[in-house]
């Protein structure tokens, strides 16, 4: 798909997914690390919990289908080599602070430069350094998660680097299209903070359009209606079960009641009640919500006795809405993903792990794992000979000087 495109990725945590997506689409992606290794190699988790430059599972998950070289652009020779590589590249993906793009080197007219910044290339925050939690917090999603009066809940894995990396890949592809039309390269600014914001887009739209500022709050109470949970504890974790007392969804709620009757947890006469009328009367304060309270108690009890898989199967059989809250172990074992080939064995640090194999399936193009994530400086002699015209002796001299 992108077989004639050369991508130079100046490796950083926020660039890794972008380079991998373009590599998955067939581009020749060369990830450039400092001689001591990219920061991405130092990201947990590690094989057997032991850190090491070749043991980061995050590195191996986000750097397949790339060639890897090491290079120090702070040296005179390193800058000269980098300038040559930039001339040969179609796209450069980099993480910058402020406006120091391409390590201060000139941008060729044909080149697409995709700068991934924390906040922006210009403005009061352009030189800010930010950790993943800072960027996610600036995007607003933690403000919506958790209970009022408690600390916000953050994602369990780095999220900003994933969101920014995906956005950078999309932006680079759009810039390629623009170059095809206009015949000139592009400079693209991808801001990690903005990349994290779509998860809370409704909150932003509401606030900017004169609506209320969304915030964490207790579930609203209306009359005598009890609070209806959305998340239910089960034997091996949690499941989401949709219970709604509105005309559009009342049929789903009645099917849950039928399941609970089948399980011997709810009386048939309760399940046969008009839940809509009962809920309206309870919300108006005109009647007690005892039948609905009984229904919710039965649902809580029923879910606690079942596994996530059993609740999912019951939802299919009785045609109501439920879904497991999946851990990473659940995702790895999920039969649907296995059948679609979304995981593949990969050798990492002397052991074989099941790693993500592709981000999408296409009808006319197959994403294949052509090569595993590169070891540090694995392809330096090959790439510098191919793109910079350096001999083995010249590469050895650069190595002796600490340039590669």
Feature tags:
elongated, alpha/beta, 2 domains, 3-stranded antiparallel β-sheet, Rossmann fold, 6-stranded parallel β-sheet, 404 residues
Describe this structure in words.
It is a single chain. With 404 residues, the protein is of the alpha/beta class. The protein has two domains: 258 residues, Crotonobetainyl-coa:carnitine coa-transferase, domain 1 (Rossmann fold, 3-Layer(aba) Sandwich); 96 residues, no CATH class. Helix content is 37%, strand content 14%. It is built from 16 helices and eleven strands. β1, α1 and β2 form a beta-alpha-beta unit. The mean pLDDT is 90.
Give the gist of this structure.
By secondary structure, the chain is α/β, with parallel strands linked by helices. The chain has 2 domains: 6-201 and 339-400, Crotonobetainyl-coa:carnitine coa-transferase, domain 1 (Rossmann fold); 231-326, no CATH class.
SSE topology sketch:
Elements: E1 6-10, H1 16-24, E2 28-33, H2 57-61, E3 66-70, H3 76-88, E4 91-95, E5 112-117, H4 132-139, H5 160-182, E6 187-191, H6 192-195, H7 201-208, E7 231-234, E8 237-241, H8 250-262, H9 268-271, H10 275-283, H11 290-304, H12 308-318, E9 322-324, H13 328-333, H14 335-339, E10 343-348, E11 351-356, H15 380-388, H16 392-400
Parallel strand pairs: 1-2, 1-4, 2-3, 4-5, 5-6
Antiparallel strand pairs: 7-8, 8-9, 10-11
Helix pairs in contact: 1-5
């Amino acid at each position: 798909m992108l077989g004639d495109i050369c991508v130079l990725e100046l490796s950083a945590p926020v660039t890794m997914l972008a380079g991998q997506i373009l590599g998955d689409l067939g581009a020749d992606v060369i990830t450039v690390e400092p001689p001591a290794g990219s920061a991405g190699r130092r990201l947990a988790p590690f094989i057997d919990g032991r850190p090491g430059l070749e043991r980061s599972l995050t590195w191996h998950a986000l750097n397949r289908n790339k060639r890897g070289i090491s290079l120090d652009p702070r040296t005179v020779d390193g800058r000269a080599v980098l300038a040559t590589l930039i001339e040969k590249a179609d796209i450069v993906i980099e993480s910058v602070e402020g406006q120091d793009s391409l390590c201060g080197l000139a941008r060729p007219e044909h080149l697409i430069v995709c700068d991934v910044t924390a906040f922006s290339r210009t403005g009061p925050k352009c030189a800010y350094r930010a950790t993943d939690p800072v960027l996610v917090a600036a995007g607003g999603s933690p403000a919506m998660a958790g209970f009022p009066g408690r600390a916000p809940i953050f994602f369990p894995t780095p999220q900003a680097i994933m969101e920014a990396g995906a956005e950078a890949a999309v932006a680079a592809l759009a810039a390629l299209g623009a170059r095809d039309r206009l015949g000139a390269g592009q400079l693209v600014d991808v801001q990690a903070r903005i990349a994290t914001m779509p998860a809370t887009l409704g909150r932003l739209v509401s606030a900017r359009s004169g609506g209320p500022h969304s915030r964490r709050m207790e579930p609203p109470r209306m009359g005598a209606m009890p609070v209806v949970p959305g998340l239910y504890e089960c034997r091996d974790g949690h499941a989401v079960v949709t219970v709604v007392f509105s005309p559009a969804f009342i049929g789903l709620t009645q099917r849950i009641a039928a399941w609970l009757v089948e399980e011997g947890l709810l009386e048939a006469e309760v399940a046969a009640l008009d839940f809509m009328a009962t809920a309206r009367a309870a919300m108006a304060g005109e009647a007690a919500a005892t039948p609905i309270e009984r229904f919710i108690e039965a649902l809580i009890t029923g879910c606690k006795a079942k596994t996530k898989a059993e609740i999912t199967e019951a939802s299919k059989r009785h045609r109501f809405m439920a879904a497991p809250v999946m851990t990473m172990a659940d995702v790895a074992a999920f039969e649907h993903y296995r059948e679609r080939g979304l995981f593949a064995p990969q050798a990492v640090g002397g052991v074989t792990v099941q790693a993500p194999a592709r981000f999408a399936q296409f009808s006319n193009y197959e994403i294949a794992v052509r090569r595993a994530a590169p070891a540090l400086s694995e392809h330096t002699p090959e790439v510098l000979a191919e793109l910079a015209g350096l001999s083995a002796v010249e590469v050895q001299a650069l190595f002796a000087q600490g340039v590669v």
